[in-house]
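Continuing the batch. This is chain 6 of the set; chains 1 through 5 are on the previous pages. Same settings as before, nothing changed between runs. Recording input and output for traceability.
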Amino acid sequence: MSLLSHNSLSGYDLMLKLQPFWPAKHSQIYPLLANMEKENQVTFELIAQTDKPDKKVYSITEKGIDSLREWLAEPSAIPVMRDEINLKAYCISTVDPEISRKLFDDRLDYYQTRLLHFQEKISLIQSKCGISDGEAPPYHSPLFGSYILLKKGVMSYRTNIEWCEWVLSILPEENKK
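Output for chain 6:
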């Protein structure tokens, strides 16, 4: 419902928009949408397509907005951190340093690419809102939530870049175990 509070979206579009926050699959999204429809929290419009199957574009209802407000007032669950590199880092000393170096070089590249992507999105929001660097969109703007999440991502990627660079700086240069 959170993502539908700003725009009407198909299930596929919801999955794509949800990916940065939550690794959801079609098999999770469509049953949830069907359940929300039964509870009158969303409605859908069937869009006919000639080259593909027809698609449903979902919109949130007033009852859905009320449910969303109730959910927002509840305490958030403890964050789940599932990053495979943490498990690999734990036992990294069991492989040759060049394998470790490649692992962290690759992850550093990933973080740097994502950081640039998030910074570009922040610049786009600032441009749309007519604000300068360091300013946030107005609180009631539909872009406020996206902006604060992108800023969190930027901060997180910067920290992860710093960590990868630090790990790379302490890895042995030669093949020693």
